[in-house]
Amino acid sequence: MALAFSSTSAPRFLPMRLPKVCLALGGDTIGDTIEDMLAIAESMARDNPFIEFRLDYLKQPLAALSKIHRFLETHQYVTAIATCRRSDNGGKFKGSLASQLEVLTKARASGCQLVDLELQSALKSKPEAIARLRGRAGLILSFHDFRATHNLDQTLEKMLKIPADFYKVVSTATTLSDNVAMMKFLQAQSGKHALIGLCMGEQGIISRVLSVRAGSVFTFGAVSADLKTAPGQISARDLRSIYRIEQVDAATRIYGVAGDPIERSLSPVIMNTALRRENVNAVYLPLHAKSLKDLIHCVREIPLHGLSITMPYKQAILPHLDNTDAHTAKIGACNTVVRGQEGKLYGFNTDIAGVIRPLEQRLTIENAKVLVLGAGGAARAAVFGLKERGAEVWILNRTSVKAQKLARQAKARTIKRADLRKIAFDVIINATPVGMGNTRDCPLKDPEIQARVVFDMVYDPVETHLLQVARAKGIAVIPGVEMFVQQAARQFEIWTGKPAPANDMLRAVTIALQERAAALKQPKA
Ligand code: NAP
Predict the structure, then answer these.
(1) How far does the centroid of ligand 1 lie from the alpha carbon of residue 430, in Å?
(2) pTM
């Protein structure tokens, strides 16, 4: 995608000619020398032919330009933005306004086709100086609000007084609803002006994908999850491979997983894999909802087609739904929301499918003797689902009154730990978090583990201590990832009406868990 340029006149950029992801190069962690920056540019340029050089992160921006020139001469397919944001305006450059303009002008002469100048610097500059700069380069006039998202229209109005090729408005999201404000702004204004817009911050993550859908010319991607130039930035690789940003358009359906915390959720990996595999024009995003009110507002305002609901909102969402299926009502928890065409919200619980499907592949559930450990939300899904299919179910829980209550509701039985060895179970299911994380904890002692199948709902780590003990005893095991995949597969089917590619989903989540485990073992630098 070579964009021809000469050093005397600026090419006027057609927004559609630019890639949708600009790799943001800079940041304290990648080093402060041009050699560090160019080493990364060199290794990533093939996949990321649109690069922003954050010159303000370099110790000597002016001195670096000859090296950038050489790089761009040998990488003619790269389109480059030069940014040298002043420290007063949220950047790192400590020099004067005149020095900033000098760096940007020389950056253009060094081959950067676009330059980014903040509104504050532009307002302090003479119009002729800006016109001179724009005469040579494509000008991105930018404004960053590092605290909040407000007055977007007024900000743009102020910016439009200065002629530029692109207007970049970046705010900070402190709620999910701030993303809604940014989307509405982009939708209303992007038909009239070439805009780049997004919200920074962890709660702004969805805007980094959805802004492109709402009309932003492009978005910014980080070098990696650890090497970001702005809070909440997603890596360029994930923007492409997980969120398929190049394909996102106005027709792209939006799905998401909502919870708090949400950062470590593997649902985006598994669900986007399924959407890509089945060629569904949709994207699935992590929604960090710090309050239910914010979540509900966002659901009403963003055209979301469906949501996965996770902790702590599985129960709390119920009063906000227009209707639920019978399972959700019985279990008292909803993990799947569908938004009907008329905007109504319907709740489902797919954890039952997550329990039943892996078991059905191993044995006949009818009349099977099943021990369920735990009496929380996941245990409730298991107990009701198993009872519905004719299994005999015993419940053992740390707090026995909760086990008794569930047993009464589901017409199951409770059992005391001391009596475990009196019954030969077909299946033991662990529906407690015991064994989760980097631990060797096990919910039962070795002699208590007597069954044909042991099913651990815990999926991180993939192979829990309980599963290791069971396997060593020759017992068939079902790891929690199978439940994770099957409950997600059922969600996918509800949302799209298509069979879910469960094998691809299992592969994707297993690789993600292995990568996570490997990262944990890496010594910290
Ligand atoms: P929950 O509603 O909080 O219930 C937790 C249950 O575990 C309660 O019965 C609790 O007993 C018991 N428990 C907690 N800590 C314990 C301990 N140290 N020793 C003994 N019992 C303990 O949680 P949930 O939503 O049911 O989830 C339970 C587990 O299933 C979690 O690990 C979750 O990650 C997993 N899960 C997996 C999937 C999947 O797709 N694989 C899906 C859903 C859930 P008390 O009543 O005494 O507090």
Answers:
(1) 8
(2) 0.89
d(CA 357, CA 364): 11
Compute the distance between CA of residue 330 and CA of residue 328 in angstroms, rounded to an integer: 5
Give 434-451 as a 3 state SS string.
CCCCCCCCCCCCHHHCCC
Pocket of ligand 1 (CB under 6 A): 351, 354, 374-379, 397-399, 402, 431-434, 436, 457-459, 480, 483-484, 487
Q: For residue 433, how far is its CA from the centre of ligand 1 (angstroms)?
A: 4
Q: E strands along 331-401, which residues?
A: 336-339, 345-348, 369-373, 392-396
The Cα 499–Cα 367 span in angstroms is 29
Closest residue to atom 3 of ligand 1, CA basis: 376
Q: Atom 23 in ligand 1: which residue has the minimum CA distance?
A: 376
Residue nearest to atom 20 of ligand 1 (CA): 398
Query: Mind listing the pLDDT tens digit for each residue in 192-216?
Result: 999 999 999 989 999 999 999 999 9
User: Which one-letter amino acid corresponds to residue 353?
Assistant: A
pLDDT class for 303, splitting at 50, 70, 90?
Answer: confident
Residue 239 is encoded by which pair of tokens?
Answer: 């923007």
Which residue from 309, 398, 436 has its CB within 8 A of the most atoms of ligand 1, so it is best to mutate? 398
Q: What per-residue confidence (pLDDT) applies to 517?
A: 84
Q: Give the DSSP letter of residue 235.
A: B
Query: What is the Cα Rg of the chain in Å?
Result: 27
Best mutation site among 264, 351, 359, 432 for ligand 1, i.e. most ligand atoms within 8 A of its Cβ? Answer: 432
Query: In angstroms, how far apart are the furthest CA atoms of the chain?
Result: 90
The three-state secondary structure class of 423 is: coil
Q: Among 314, 457, 486, name the best residue to mutate to test ligand 1's pocket (greatest count of ligand atoms within 8 A of Cβ).
A: 457
| Residue type (1 letter), 419 | D
From the list 133, 15, 168, 163, the residue with the least C-alpha distance to 79 is 15
pLDDT per position as a tens digit, 468-512: 999 999 999 999 999 999 999 999 999 999 999 999 999 999 999
Residue among 92, 228, 314, 330 flagged as catalytic: 314
**Identity (one letter) of the amino acid at 389?**
R
pLDDT tens digits, residue range 432-459?
999 998 788 999 999 999 999 999 999 9
* Residue 457 Cα to ligand 1 middle (Å): 9
pLDDT level of residue 523 (50, 70, 90 thresholds): low
pLDDT tens for each residue of 380-408: 999 999 999 999 999 999 999 999 999 99
Look up 314 and say whether it is catalytic: yes
pLDDT-based confidence at 3, cuts 50/70/90? very low
Query: Which pLDDT does position 220 carry in this prediction?
Result: 95
- Of all residues in the chain, the percent with pLDDT exceeding 90 is 86
